[in-house]
Amino acid sequence: MFIESITPEELQKLEFASFPGKITVIDSVGAEFNRAIAYLRSQKVIGFDTETRPTFTPSQPRYNVSLLQLSGPDKAFLFRLNRIGMHRRLCNLLASEKIVKVGAAIHDDIRGLQVLHGFKAAGFVDLQKIGWEWGIRDKAVKKMTAIILGFRISKTQQLSNWEAVNLSESQCKYAATDAWVCREMYLKLLASEKNPLDLSATVEAAEESR
């Protein structure tokens, strides 16, 4: 059984962890891109996330999705979409019902990708929508990771420039980790007994507090 929620104090006590495998940045369509697609298509479950260059003032333009992260157990691939676009083979991968793609709050991520190239998303799992089935109330990736996997992940690179000429090692590690932990959380949940939250009690409490 998992705890419903974790406090900032409890979170601080946990050790940091990050993706332990090989990270490959894909910024052109060639042999490396082909190997990445072949590896990802061989997986039954992959972790999924995206990053977009942030804007800090209303006058700044809003950017399209900069990076698509897809991770297996030992390899993570960072596709620089601002360089290669949303290639049809990536679209086919994300439209495959045979490969489970696991992320958190994935609706906006998918919509952002579809702006670049239309595709029909299939085989996606949103951790924020299924966590309650295992009694987990928290929805932030950082907190869910702590509850399910028992370690802390860093979010310091979240608002960095994802369209920089070269991504830093810290950016790559952050991006790969975010996709990887989604995969690991999903597999851990599947291997654990369900203990659903009483959603009716949650709704009643919310109504009483109004």
Q: Could you name the ranges where pLDDT drops below 50 across 5 or more consecutive residues? A: none
Which overall shape is indicated by the principal axes computed on the Cα atoms?
Answer: globular
Largest sheet: 6 strands, mixed
Strand content: 15-25%
Helix proportion: 25-40%
How much is the average pLDDT?
Answer: 94
Query: Structural class per helix/strand content?
Result: alpha/beta
Order of helices and strands: HEHEEEHHEHEHHHH
Task: State Rg.
Answer: 18 Å
Q: Walk across the major sheet and give the strand order.
A: 1-4-3-2-5-6
Number of helices: 9
End-to-end separation in angstroms reads 31 Å
Q: How many strands?
A: 6
Q: How would you describe what is shown here?
A:
This protein is α/β, with parallel strands linked by helices and 210 residues long. 40% of the residues lie in helices and 16% in strands. It is built from 9 helices and 6 strands. It has helices at 8-12, 31-41, 81-84, 88-94, 106-116, 127-130, 141-149, 169-190, 199-208; strands at residues 22-26, 45-52, 65-71, 75-80, 100-103, 124-126. The protein has a 6-stranded mixed beta sheet with strand order 1-4-3-2-5-6. Strand 3 (65-71) and strand 4 form a beta hairpin. Helix 7 packs across helix 8. The longest helix is centred in the last third of the chain and has 22 residues, at 169-190. The model has no long low-confidence stretch (mean pLDDT 94).
Defining traits:
210 residues; globular
